[in-house]
Amino acid sequence: MKVFVIDVAKCSGCYSCQLACKNEHVGKDWTPYAKPQPQTGHFWMKIKETEHGSIPKVKVEYRPTLCMHCDDASCIKAAKDGAVYRRKDGLVIIDPEKAKGQKQLVEACPYGAIYWNEELNIPQKCTGCAHLVDEGEVPRCVDACAHEAIKFGEEEELADLIAKAEVMQPELGLRPRVYYLNLPGFFVAGDVYDPVSDEIIEGAEITLNNKQTGESWTTKSDDFGDFWFKRLKSGQYSLDIKMSGYKPIQISDIAVDKSVNLGSLSLERE
Ligand code: SF4
Ligand code: SF4
């Protein structure tokens, strides 16, 4: 059974995969797997760009997104007349003939992977380039990525990567076959300085605590006075800062439901 494994840390956001998908499908008829993709409005492979934090502590995340080729696909359940089916290799296909007029399929996918083709009166989505896979080739997006951020292959062969990977929205229970490595999560960042000398403080010990799980992480402010805690899950956190010669400070309530820039934190001399 085929899977995609996408390493977000390797993705530079070059959009080559998105363009390659367009090049492979716009104006090209791959019946029985797909009718031509319209020139505009559809992104069967889409780079989602998310900005985390606030200036000057900002990170941009690029996440290639596509149909998750779910094992327990809600689109298959919502389809009439078997219009959506799973191939033996795991790729989920919308039959362009049987799916005519079945606009309900667009709403049936909680990942937003299905688009409506007004002109042809059909729902459409990523086919995993099944027409290429049949020829022993890989999907165009995989081939287009110079950074090898998107891998496609047999589940068993990619088992080591899958063991370290996550799926999007596992709580939906659809068992996606697209896995992600190195999803950035959220960060908490800031910098420390001495307001008297107006200098940054290097080497302050900074500890972040997850108040729900009890986990904690410690780092030191770098030579710009900066500190970062990355790849955090959402939750309530607290932060302690200690530095010899300065009074310790604590920030007891940090709500992390997005990345947080705490800004410049001043330490008072003892
Ligand atoms: Fe990212 Fe590769 Fe797609 Fe470029 S081609 S946007 S590096 S996944
Ligand atoms: Fe169906 Fe959506 Fe899952 Fe793709 S991501 S298989 S369209 S439910």
TrEMBL record:
The keyword Hydrolase belongs to this UniProt entry's keyword annotation: no
Gene3D superfamilies in UniProt: 3.30.70.20, Immunoglobulins
Q: Which domain of life is it from?
A: Bacteria
What does the UniProt keyword field contain?
A: 4Fe-4S, Iron, Iron-sulfur, Metal-binding, Oxidoreductase, Transferase
EC nos: 1.97.1.2
GO molecular function terms here?
4 iron, 4 sulfur cluster binding; metal ion binding; pyrogallol hydroxytransferase activity; transferase activity
Say yes or no: keyword Cell membrane present: no
- Which residue range or ranges hold the 4Fe-4S ferredoxin-type domain? 2-31, 90-119
Top enzyme class: oxidoreductase
Q: Which PANTHER family match?
A: PROTEIN NRFC (PTHR43177), PROTEIN NRFC HOMOLOG (PTHR43177:SF3)
* Name of the protein: Pyrogallol hydroxytransferase small subunit BthL
Instruction: Identify the species of origin.
Output: Thermacetogenium phaeum (strain ATCC BAA-254 / DSM 26808 / PB)
| Lineage, uppermost ranks | Bacteria, Bacillati, Bacillota, Clostridia, Thermoanaerobacterales
Q: Which gene encodes it?
A: bthL
